[in-house]
Amino acid sequence: MLKKVVFIATVTVFFVMIASFVLIQALIYKGATPVRIEELIDEDIDYVIILGAALWDDRPSPTLYNRLVIANEFLEENNVKVIATGGLGEGDTITEAEGIKRFLVDKGIEEERIYKEEFSTSTFENLRNSKNIIASIDDREHINILIVTSDFHVFRSKLIARRLGFAVFGLPAKTPASTRNRMIFREYFAVINTVSFEK
Fold it and tell me: Any idea what the CATH number is for the domain that residue 80 is in?
């Protein structure tokens, strides 16, 4: 009898995990759907938040570079403030936020439009700290933000942002092919962590 109960429980857990994996992957892929800049023009975006990623020799890695290219495209067409996020990675001499700022300034984005969030080590901290920065400079109750991040990362980032009280839109950047499948697979576990622990 006990063996039967254990077997049923094991099978149930297995199928629940499979179902959750399929559901979450579907949501991740939906969040990764490309968005045209023109589609965001009428959304009254107040702030752009660029989520950091690795630097290579103080320059954007391919993942971060793709985020910055599409963020810059939006910022060139929309005169809004931007928050560059990301702390100091192992072996780096500048923060991810500083690397983002340097890229944008080199592309012609005015330095006074850029705020840096340099103390985060996770997506949750990126967005929580960005919320604090916005609150320190803007007392409006309703704030529309646009999160720029990799395509696989949009769903979870928007989930966290909504929990923090933001009205949020996402602008997905293409993930380099060399890392795409691995990052999408890992994102399943990151979503589970967010749902379970990042309140």
Answer: 3.40.50.620
